């Protein structure tokens, strides 16, 4: 039952917003009593923590499935961007991270701590892969580029109210990030990926 509650709560939080969904809403959607929810979660904040942790895990599981497909480094980044677009296509118009930062700052900080750590590994691996493939320049300061990119992406999500707007700006950030690192061969691959984009 606990997993079912988390699943339904996650769906509602993303669709309607963390702030607006109440425990009554979740109970009503599931045709259970609010008392049943409180048996597993002492308050809404704990349920939000569990839900965001679930989304975090789902995101990284999907990233892992994309990475093992062994696309080139630039194609891989565009596939991951597409995955995020699909995952959050039914989300409320307000960016989930923006909502968390505004209404639940402590939960937001906890997520960011884990997220930055995981993204560090992924961005670093992607840059090293791109260098090996001749798509990124070999003289890059990898630590600096990793930091540039995650700072850019997380700042966009935490400060842009509209989810749709955040996704548009993220695409610009991905292009900006890739052009900054790319060799001539990398630029050709970037242009190829941009032509396939549907926003």
Write up what this structure looks like.
It is a single chain. The protein has about 200 residues and is mainly alpha-helical. It has one domain (about 55-195): Tetracycline Repressor, domain 2, CATH 1.10.357. Helix content is about 75%, strand content about 0%. The chain contains ten helices and no strands. Helix 4 packs antiparallel against helix 5 (about 75-85), helix 7 runs antiparallel to helix 8 and helix 8 (about 140-160) packs antiparallel against helix 9. The longest helix is centred in the middle third of the chain and has 28 residues, at about 105-130. It is elongated, with a radius of gyration of 19 Å. InterPro entries: Homeodomain-like_sf (IPR009057), HTH-type_Tx_Regulator (IPR050624), HTH_TetR (IPR001647). GO terms for molecular function: DNA binding. This is HTH tetR-type domain-containing protein. It comes from Flavobacterium bizetiae.
Return Rg in Å: 19 Å
The major beta sheet can be summarized as: none
Q: What's the order of the H and E elements? A: HHHHHHHHHH
What is the overall silhouette? elongated
Helix content: over 70%
Number of spatially distinct domains: 1
- What is the CATH C-level name? Mainly Alpha
CATH fold node name: Tetracycline Repressor, domain 2
- What is the number of beta strands? 0
How many helices? The count is: 10
Give the overall pLDDT as a whole number.
Answer: 88
Structural class: mainly alpha
How would you name the CATH homologous superfamily? Tetracycline Repressor, domain 2
